[in-house]
Amino acid sequence: MLERRGGAVLGISSRTAKAHSDALRVKLGVARRRQIPAAFRLLTGEDPYVPALVRLRSPRSR
Known about the structure:
Strand content: under 5%
Number of strands: 0
Radius of gyration: 14 Å
């Protein structure tokens, strides 16, 4: 169900969204889709929910 909504937002099919999600799970070594953001944060130190433009404008990066 989430793949359907996410796919619609991105303009891709639900099968494509699921395939991308599955690829991310394998690369990050997690079992569930809900674990992807936490694994990303552990590997990069960045919050996946903060848009990239906000990170670029933060005072820390200056």
